[in-house]
Design a protein that fits this description.
mainly alpha, about 80% helix, 2 domains
């Protein structure tokens, strides 16, 4: 069954039945709850801070010491699905990169997949910012990322510096 069929069936329902089904989804599925909570009360700054905590949890878990980038990447993907602004998404992506650079400076070199993930997020963030015309708002943070990555190997600093200069110089 595809979306067309689902829409066709939903069109047959009256308002009360639709509300009942949406309420059930809201109770059962956390992503649906978060989506409707944000839809009804779009306090973007609060939700951004909540997701920044989730991103940080992937690098610096409250329990244990294991790096789990999947937690951070999942948080970013969930955040995108909420329908937040491109500025808020850029902020979260830059925060992810900041955490990655901080983590590397705290614990030493990681692996290629780690650096690729951080590099891709940096490039994506600057691309979104450029398209939205908000590069200036994030320039200090982007510069700080490049500066803080100076002693990191694997060509990581060079890549970040190249991406930075592509958008800011």
């Amino acid at each position: 069954m595809g979306l067309r069929e689902v829409k066709s069936e939903l069109n047959k329902l009256d308002k009360a039945d639709l509300i009942k089904h949406i309420s059930e989804l809201y109770k059962i599925y956390k992503p649906v709850k978060e989506y409707f909570d944000f839809y009804v009360n779009p306090k973007e700054e609060e939700i951004l801070e909540k997701y920044k905590e989730k991103v940080r949890e992937g690098f610096y878990p409250k329990r244990g010491f294991a790096l789990k980038l999947s937690i951070s990447r999942t948080a970013i993907n969930e955040f995108k699905k909420l329908g937040t602004s491109k500025e808020a998404l850029s902020d979260l992506l830059i925060y992810y990169v900041e955490c990655g650079v901080e983590f590397t400076n705290d614990f030493g070199d990681i692996d290629e997949n780690f650096y690729s993930s951080i590099e891709n997020a940096f490039g994506k963030a600057l691309q979104i910012m450029s398209k939205e015309g908000i590069l200036a708002k994030f320039e200090d943070r982007a510069y700080e990322i490049v500066e803080n990555a100076q002693n990191i190997g694997w060509g990581f600093h060079d890549y970040l510096a190249d991406v930075y200069s592509e958008y800011y110089e």
